[in-house]
Specification:
The protein is α/β, with parallel strands linked by helices and about 550 residues long. The protein is built from 16 helices and 18 strands. A hairpin with a 4-residue loop joins strand 10 and strand 11. It starts with 14 loop residues before the first strand and ends in a 7-residue tail after the last strand. About 25% of the residues are buried.
């Protein structure tokens, strides 16, 4: 049975729901002659629910959306017969399976009321969303309700004083609100990046050992008490005291941890309880933090500015400590390899594709090797049983690291020029998009008012979507270039032994041991090189 019109029912009460799903308030519904018809089973109301992959907040959960819709149904005495749920789908596009199923059921005449938690659940492309609210739903006799937005199309149907322009106010306003939000975020990020470039501290809390100056909260100055602790830690490390011994010393002397110090001195901020003791991770974080040399590394683009504040350790001492870390982590000398498996899960058999296991040499010798056990488990027809010494793998990584850095070298000036070029392109494309977006909104209003055809509106909408895609592609290119540069800087530091090999494992996708005695290192970005494992590379 197809319903071409909506039966008059009571005007929706104003209902406000809290994010805890516990309290809602309602004002008295307006009385009119159609109130009794609410009690009939005639309205076929459904709920539409959408949850994006990124949105894991309780307030937007599937359960919360159901609760809000059910409360509305109980308030209006209209049962919700069915839910259409798109779990893990973006609201930018309408080709969602549950949404399309609902559209088909509407066309079949099985539904005459659609209820959502808020307009963003229906979709985040407010030009397209507006089409469904103002054209598709009314033309198919569908009552549409957005509970949290207090938006109900029946208000515009029963009360004729509600003009078309007032009914489109909600989606259009939301569209502009979204654009304003994006602009504010961009301006805030640009402001913080500018501050980072000029050596202004932008963090919410000063690092342990420092405090914010009273007359200028953007400036770091030494904390008289905490600075003593920091200097002592660096002094111990510079004298050759190992990490474990430093941790033991700090705990035996009952020196407060950064968290304990913050609480004792009434410093603001959210701090985890922890176990109240120093550990190797907290000590290493201090010993590898260049902030203590008077340098700031901040912002999304990791802006580096030297001599911004008073140093607690001189650069030579700091670099010497980093070198000692590197030598310990990158110990590939004969009979001197680390017991830690920094390559865990990275070494792959080139014959069967399985992960190779790390094992100690015979008779508990102080050396390690990687082997594939597929041959022993499944037979020689499944794998030849690849084998390689860990020392050879580490040497191959280091050799290929140098080749990679040399081949893909990016200077700081090259990077800055490319980022400037991409930023200019983004600004230009953003300006074009904003202009066509405003034009699309104008054409949308003309379409709703019947001044232009659907095809004319769609043509303008397609241009807006095209401009948006161009802008988004440039932004994606910039992000990819920034990531490549960050990876490159890491690899460059490792090639000079400024940081340990274990700190670049995230830059390595996999290491393949091939049957032709090649070791292939596949990096997390595009470059890739090959070297024979039995060759002794020059250092």
């Amino acid at each position: 049975m197809r319903y071409s019109t909506i039966l008059p029912v009571a005007t929706v009460s104003t209902v406000a729901f809290s994010i805890e799903r516990s309290i809602f308030m309602a004002r008295k519904s307006r009385k009119h002659k159609y109130k009794e018809e609410l009690k009939s089973p005639f309205p076929v109301a459904v709920g539409y629910i959408r949850l994006s992959v990124a949105n894991k907040e309780k307030a937007s959960s599937i359960e919360n959306q159901k609760f809000i819709i059910e409360c509305w149904g109980e308030q209006q005495q209209i049962p919700i017969s069915h839910y259409y749920i798109d779990n893990g789908f973006s609201g930018k596009f309408s080709d969602r399976p549950a949404f399309q199923e609902m559209i088909q059921d509407i066309l079949s005449g099985d539904i005459n009321c659609v209820v959502v938690k808020d307009l963003s659940r229906l979709g985040r492309n407010y030009i397209s969303t507006g089409y469904y609210i103002e054209v598709f739903f009314p033309s198919n006799g569908i009552r549409f309700v957005s509970v949290n937005d207090q938006f109900d199309t029946i208000d515009g149907i029963i009360n004729q004083e509600h003009t078309c322009s007032s009914r489109i106010r909600v989606p259009i306003t939301n569209a502009f609100n979204e654009q304003v939000s994006i602009e504010i975020k961009k301006k805030m990020e640009a402001t913080l990046d500018m501050k980072a470039q000029h050596g202004i501290f932008i963090g919410p809390r000063a690092p342990f050992g420092y405090q914010k100056a009273e007359d200028n909260h953007d400036q770091l100055i030494p904390d008289p008490k905490a600075a003593i602790i920091i200097r002592k830690i660096f002094e111990l490390a510079a004298n050759g005291i190992g990490m474990t011994a430093i941790v033991r010393y700090l705990n035996e002397k009952e020196i407060p941890t950064p968290i304990q110090y913050a609480r004792l001195n009434g410093l603001s901020g959210n701090y985890d309880n922890g176990n109240g003791n120093w550990n190797s991770r907290s000590v290493k974080y201090i010993l590898t933090n260049r902030t203590y040399t008077g340098m700031l590394v901040q912002g999304k683009e990791k802006r580096v500015v030297s001599a911004t504040h008073e140093a607690l350790v001189d650069t030579n001492t700091f670099d010497a400590i980093q070198k000692s870390f590197q030598e310990k982590a990158f110990n590939i000398a004969k009979h001197g390899q680390s017991t830690e498996n920094i390559l865990k899960g990275k070494v792959i058999c080139g014959c069967c594709g399985g992960k190779m296991q790390r094992k100690r040499g015979t008779n508990h010798a102080d050396w390690y090797f990687f082997t594939c056990i597929t041959k022993n488990r499944l037979g020689a027809d499944k794998c030849t049983g690849m084998y390689v010494r860990e020392e050879d793998v580490l040497r191959a990584i280091y050799y290929q690291l140098k080749l990679c850095v040399k081949e893909h070298f990016i200077s700081d000036s090259q990077y800055k020029q490319e980022i400037m070029r991409l930023n200019n392109e983004i600004d230009h494309s953003e300006s074009q998009y904003q202009e066509i977006f405003r034009n699309a909104v104008h054409h949308y209003e003309m379409f709703v008012d019947g001044k232009i055809s659907k095809d004319e509106f769609r043509a303008v909408q397609d241009v807006a979507n095209e401009k948006k895609a161009i802008r988004d592609n440039i932004i994606t290119s910039k992000m990819a270039y920034e990531k490549q540069y960050q990876v490159f800087r890491k690899l460059l530091k490792a090639s000079y032994k400024e940081i340990a090999l274990d700190e670049i494992m995230d830059c390595i996708d996999k290491i393949t041991i091939c049957p032709n005695k090649n070791i292939t290192v596949k990096w997390a970005i595009e470059f890739q090189t090959i070297v024979k494992w039995h060759c002794t590379p020059p250092y």
